[in-house]
Amino acid sequence: MVQTKRWLTGLILGAALTITTYGTITASTFSNSEHSPQPSSTQGKAKNVIVFVGDGMGAAHRDAIRLATKGVNGELEMDDMPYSGIVHTNSDDKKSFITDSAAAATAIATGVKSYNGAIGVDVNGKTVQTILEQAKEAGKSTGLVTTSQVTDATPAAFAAHVANRSSQSDIAKQYLENSKVDVILGGGEDYWYPAENPGKHPDHPSEDPSEASKGTQENLVEKAKQLGYTYVSNADELRRAHSDKLLGLFANEEMFQQRPEGEGDMYNPVVSLPEMTKKAIDILSKNKKGFFLLVEEEAIDEMSHENNASLMLKAGQQFDKAVAIGKEYAKKHRDTLVIVLADHESGGLAIETANDTDESGDGKTFSSEDGPFPVAHSEQTFTIDWTTTGHTGVDVPLTAMGPGADKLTGVYENTHIHDVIVQAMRRK
């Protein structure tokens, strides 16, 4: 049930051949000469940084998305990048080393390992400065884009500091008052309005009657407006918005419905991840000092938790389109560092030959197989098998391009990503 990725195999073999004194592998080990950038592309200062997080997206997820989208011999936008590495994801949690999104994102954002549930704090609950906050101090514009709640664990860890990821209204308030994020786009309007005070998205919608305003702070959308933000809640309003400070909340909670296949599952964001990504870059890039942008596709993780392969693939395809937008900008602005990674793996996904035998059993003890799914540009099919509905402790792949990308080769802890980004932004 092991799915071996072609570039992953080369990565591991290369690791045995070329090790630097710091225990990482040199860039030449990983660079594909066919796609390698000019030497100057990894030199100089990273004026702009775009970090793409496919939440829960392990190596097999990337392969499954590739097979369904590009076929056996094709490459996704996220894989067709000149530098790659393997990331350890473990948290510093006494109960379980297997990380949640909060601890993983905190490690990436701050360079410090913490406990599961931590947002921008260390194991003792002490605030640790994030990459986004450092970018803001340097005069750069900053942005958070996600298909989850904008105050969910991954974006929150880059722009807030709370002991528990569930404090989403506190996180929203910190975005406005402390980290002062310029562009905030995603779901989660319910946490910006007090209970019994619905916003643009009505309480108890038919697709999920449990959703309703539940904010524990003041009316934070009104506060955002007072602070100069333009507030938008649908695609038309987003397209018309030109403000340098933009808050877009496009759903009560996540911008999708995460359920098992055929049980009310839905992936149809009212604004697509590529659209939000494009808008964020258009606004943030006005700043002559540069920008830092985090883009997350949450549905890869949530659909993996539900063992819903069909919508996991759909979300992954949208994520790859968003990556293409970031890459296109970076090709025109070579002082832009682009990183694509996951915070952890979800579902224990494996890719198998489609046949009449379901090796996972009756689905009561083990998760059942999904598929068959067509392999793009061929008559072949494949099956996706799941081993869990939770997170796993396996390493995840990372790909990168731009200034500092060559420092992201090899095998390393997720905290190393923070260090590389900070160094790239500070170069003379």
Task: Please render the helix and strand layout as text.
Elements: H1 6-15, H2 27-30, E1 48-54, H3 59-69, E2 83-88, H4 101-110, H5 131-137, E3 141-149, H6 153-159, H7 168-179, E4 183-187, H8 220-226, E5 230-232, H9 235-240, E6 246-249, H10 273-284, E7 291-297, H11 299-305, H12 309-332, E8 336-341, E9 345-346, E10 350-353, E11 370-374, E12 381-385, E13 391-392, E14 396-401, E15 410-413, H13 415-426
Parallel strand pairs: 1-7, 1-8, 2-15, 3-4, 3-7, 4-6, 5-6
Antiparallel strand pairs: 2-14, 8-14, 9-13, 10-12, 11-12
Helix pairs in contact: 3-12, 4-6, 4-13, 10-12, 11-12
What does this structure look like?
This protein is an alpha/beta fold. It is about 30% helix and about 20% strand. It is built from 13 helices and 15 strands. Strand 5, helix 9 and strand 6 form a beta-alpha-beta unit. Helix 4 (about 100-110) runs parallel beside helix 13 and helix 11 (about 300-305) packs antiparallel against helix 12. The termini are far apart.
Radius of gyration: 21 Å
State the strand order across the main sheet: 5-6-4-3-7-1-8-14-2-15
Uncertain stretches of 5 or more adjacent residues: 1-40, 362-366
Give the DSSP E fraction (strand runs of 2 or more residues). Answer: 15-25%
Relative helix content: 25-40%
Order of helices and strands: HHEHEHHEHHEHEHEHEHHEEEEEEEEH
Q: What's the N-to-C terminus distance?
A: 48 Å
Q: What's the β-strand tally?
A: 15
Continuous helix count: 13
Q: If you average the pLDDT, what whole number results? A: 89
What does the main sheet amount to?
10 strands, mixed
Estimated structural class: alpha/beta
Q: Please, what is the oligomeric state?
A: single chain
Overall 3D geometry?
globular
